[in-house]
Design goal:
Length: 572
């Protein structure tokens, strides 16, 4: 049954349905946009607003007056700042010299109704196409990076003289399945007038052999997540490795995430299966809103030595949008977080208007996502609430994502599975309850609102123990501090007392905060004491929940005072 649901929901209709919905949605959005001045609606970046300084630097470095915005550097030298009024650049300007195929331009301007390029598109598309440079590109969230890499990559595909479907020309790697599906839909939207080119996905949680058959049947563009991609490649003899031997373009979207310790090993394995660049040259592009220092150190895995670094964000500038007010709510204790969240949601909903209030709430773990969902669903004044995390089946994840995409208002409570790249329309608010794993994660989560020049609001709810994060990790962000509204605390405790998931929530909490013991200035005994307080006061547990011996061992908490340890339950 599972397979038939997957086949029905994912393989047959997913890409076409997503594409159809996505294209309808784009058309609706862009019809709405067309009532406004026909320009990219994003506000000028500070790179644009500081164009005087930028001009000076440009002259000093004797750069040509390049039609791009922001910072550009070759290799890892200090970025140069190159000014431009990218607002003025139209997609149709790319027809000069046949840089972009007329059919692709027609799709962009007529079907998708994009007339002007966004700053990152204006800064990258020309060098990618005319110089065939490898690039590392950084631009704020929601500013059109997907088209910035897809359009030139698809142009590369059109330029090739090989038979459509005979070999994979473009490989896009993304950190999450949802993002892979979204990019696949966007690629199909861009190729709607060139249906001879086929887009395939390679993501986990789905039937591998069906995926493989589709890829082998005819695939020009492959979009996938690292683990599943490597499963398909798995060595020189795999037929899919064979299909990749004509690869022309490699893109890493959310590059910093793919190059961090979590994904780097599988990425190395995938690159090892691709053709040797000395024999079969290809173009590589890395895109992200955040480029921490380590990225430049490891970028040699995919980029040539002469790569260009193009950024529309000034050095030292925080990658969040200036137009997004960011509120900080400090709850006295972890046990007050659910009440503080409910208070903030009520406040924001009345601020934005119930009809259009569409929020994403990020929580640290699947267990906490589930807890907040179960609590908030008990309050009749809350709008429909969805939850999303990696412990759900892929078909459920795909359904929930699509449901939220279509919703006019509502709340999605999620882990970081949708923190990066996801382009849900009209999200008015992002709330983060508890610290994110790092500064980059904060930026990407917040970036789910205020996309494509729209307005949005951010709320960061932390306990008094977590203020080190807002003070030090997010130094440079100006927060408006608001008191926590804890009026619902007693009601929440009564709801939590009736739940049978207290043990799981407690375990999830311990697992997450264990990694931050040092940053909190705690030791393991204090960690357990705080977890127990959260369980008794916040979750209404009658006693400290028990943990299996093996779980305690895996968490590195063996022998720590205050835990209630039981023997492992036998698994059926
Ligand atoms: N030139 C354009 N004019 C108007 N809208 C555009 C243009 N290019 C892209 N968009 C729209 O802007 C939105 C954001 O684009 P996209 O998802 O590519 O952003 P992003 O920069 O990749 O964001 P993130 O950093 O979160 O991944 C999308 O809805 C997209 O359709």
């Amino acid at each position: 049954m599972y397979l038939s649901i997957l086949r029905r929901q994912l393989y047959k209709p997913t890409i076409p349905t997503l594409t159809r919905n996505f294209m309808n949605e784009m058309a609706t959005r862009h019809n709405a946009k067309s009532k406004q001045p026909a320009k990219w609606r994003g506000k000028a970046t500070s790179a644009q607003s500081s164009s005087k300084q930028a001009t000076k630097l440009t002259n000093a470095h004797n750069e040509p007056s390049n039609p791009s915005v922001g910072q550009m550097a070759t290799n890892s030298s200090a970025p140069l700042t190159i000014p431009v009024s990218s607002d003025e650049q139209k997609f149709n300007d790319l027809s000069e010299g046949g840089l972009v195929h007329p059919t692709l331009l027609l799709t962009i301007t007529e079907d998708l109704k994009f007339e002007y390029m966004t700053p990152v598109q204006a800064a990258t598309i020309r060098p990618i196409l005319s110089e065939r440079s490898d690039i590392l590109a950084q631009a704020k969230t929601g500013t059109g990076k997907t088209v910035a890499f897809l359009l030139p990559a698809l142009q590369n595909l059109v330029n090739r003289k090989i038979k459509p479907g005979s070999a994979v020309s473009l490989l896009v790697i993304t950190p999450t399945r949802e993002l892979a599906l979204q990019i696949a839909a966007e690629a199909e939207a861009l190729l709607q007038r060139l249906p001879q080119f086929k887009v395939c996905i390679a993501i986990g949680g789905t039937k591998k052999d069906i995926e493989e058959r589709r890829i082998l049947k005819g695939c020009d563009i492959l979009i996938g997540t690292p683990g599943r991609l490597y499963d398909h490649l798995g060595g020189d003899s795999s037929p899919i490795t064979e299909k990749l031997q004509q690869l022309d373009t490699l893109v890493l979207d959310e590059a910093d995430r793919l190059l961090d310790m979590g994904f780097l090993p599988s990425l190395k394995q995938i690159v090892g299966c691709l053709p040797n660049r000395a024999v079969k040259p290809r173009q590589a592009m890395l895109f992200s809103a955040t480029v921490p220092e380590y990225v430049q150190k490891v970028s040699g895995l995919v980029l040539s030595k002469e790569y260009k670094y193009i950024s529309t964000i000034q050095k030292g500038e925080i990658s969040t949008h200036e137009r997004v007010p960011q509120q900080l709510i400090i709850a006295p204790n972890f046990s007050d977080m659910a009440a503080a969240l409910l208070g903030a949601l009520r406040q924001e909903r009345s601020e934005v208007g119930a009809e259009t209030f569409k929020a994403i709430v990020f929580a640290p773990t699947a267990g906490l996502v589930n807890f907040y969902t179960e609590v908030l669903q008990q309050f009749p004044d809350m709008p429909p609430i969805l939850q999303l995390h990696a412990r759900m089946t892929q078909s459920k994840r795909t359904n929930v994502t699509e449901q939220y995409r279509q919703a006019r208002s509502g709340i999605m409570i999620a882990t970081d599975v949708i923190a990066r790249g996801m382009d849900f329309p009209a999200v008015t608010n992002v709330l983060q309850v508890g610290i994110p794993s790092d500064k980059e994660s904060y930026v990407h989560r917040l970036g789910r609102t205020a996309r494509a020049g729209a307005e949005g609001r951010g709320t960061f709810i932390i306990s008094a123990h977590e203020t080190w994060f807002s003070k030090w990790e997010l130094k440079g962000i100006t927060f408006n501090e608001h008191p926590a509204d804890l009026t619902a605390q007693d009601d929440i405790k009564r709801i939590a007392e009736r739940m049978d998931s207290q043990g799981k929530t407690y375990q999830a909490w311990l697992g997450f905060y264990k990694s931050y013991v040092k940053r909190m200035g705690w030791d393991n005994v204090r960690l357990v004491a705080e977890a127990n307080k959260f369980a008794l006061e916040g979750l209404g547990a009658p006693e400290v929940p028990s943990l299996e011996k093996s779980v305690v061992g895996k968490m590195g908490l063996r022998g720590v005072k205050g835990l209630s340890v039981i023997q492992n339950r036998s698994r059926q």
